[in-house]
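In response to reviewer comment 3 from the previous cycle, which asked for concrete evidence that the modeling workflow produces usable outputs, we include below a single protein chain processed end to end. The sequence was submitted unchanged, and the resulting structure tokens are shown without manual editing.
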Amino acid sequence: MSLLPKKTRGHSPFSVFDDGFNSLMDDFLLPRRAVGVDQRLVPRIDVKETETAFQVKADLPGMKKEDIELTLQDGVLSISATRDDEHKEEADGELLHRERVFGRYVRNISLGNRIDENSVHASFEDGVLEVTVPKLESGTDDKVRVAIK
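The workflow returned the following structure tokens.
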């Protein structure tokens, strides 16, 4: 017995339209999606801010460390990766069904300009990229009062 309600989908003639409309609305309402990028390939990330650093975790299952490029410029952390199709044009058979995705993507994360770009640490293990970007120590407040005329 399940405590969660089971979602069943009847054979309504409108279910095709519902799916299409929901997808269209998601594309419209979620600005973080990149146009022309297969969203199944874009990694899911967590960004955590502590007093001393930003910590970014990105799920990159099936990727190799050599396929990942990590750059930091002007306060923007850029994660790019390429997953090549290892089964291009197989001569011994026809591919009947494909769910795995291949291609290149870039994910940019703005961290601001108060970071120590020379002390970034990154590791990649079990398909998870972990990046720690230390903040610069500063004795001044970020707030600047602007006079209103």
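The chain has one helix and seven strands. We consider this sufficient to address the reviewer's concern, and the full set will be provided in the supplementary archive.
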